[in-house]
User: Fold this.
Amino acid sequence: VLDHAVAAVEQVAGGWRVAGPNGSRTTRAVLVATDPPTATRLAGVPEVPMRGCVTWWFGTPTRPSPLAMLHLHPGAGPVVNTAVISNAAPSYAPAGSHLVSAVTLDEAPESQVRRQLATIYGVPTTGWQVVAHQVVAHSLPAVAVPVAAGLPSRVAPGLHVAGDHRAHASIQGAMVSGRRSAAEILAALRA
Assistant:
């Protein structure tokens, strides 16, 4: 079962049975740490609507900022974060250029992305070249932080669910949820 996709999680006498392509294993507690659709299928938690992320990659002739930092929610517009990637990793940039990333939730017109980046960095973006435009559909759960921050990991005795859909939509949210779930499971098993 380990190192393979799980086909089912079922409650049985004494705990939970986890089944996969190579058999099953029964245990007192299970942590389903997955994306929202899989958590719904395996643990029966309510479906969570998903949003996509789009990363725009621009090659720039000049460095728009000397800072090696991520700008979060930088003002009005579709961009939720941006960074001059080549400030931290120069080899990532196209030859003779600098590399800027800009992330939006779902699709946004390039003109709006460029306009916001020009405001953030205080430089025109007309000379910037789109190096790549990556769309990752269904990459983030659309959850409200005040609601999701309070979701317990325990969904049934011995069955826990972790993921950014149980905390806040980010890698940090997934880690917070996983840590919280582990603490709850250990406390329950020690009781």
User: Anything to note?
Assistant: The first helix runs from residue 36 to 43. The CA atoms of residues 147 and 167 lie 8 Å apart. The mean pLDDT is 92. The chain is about 25% helix and 35% strand.
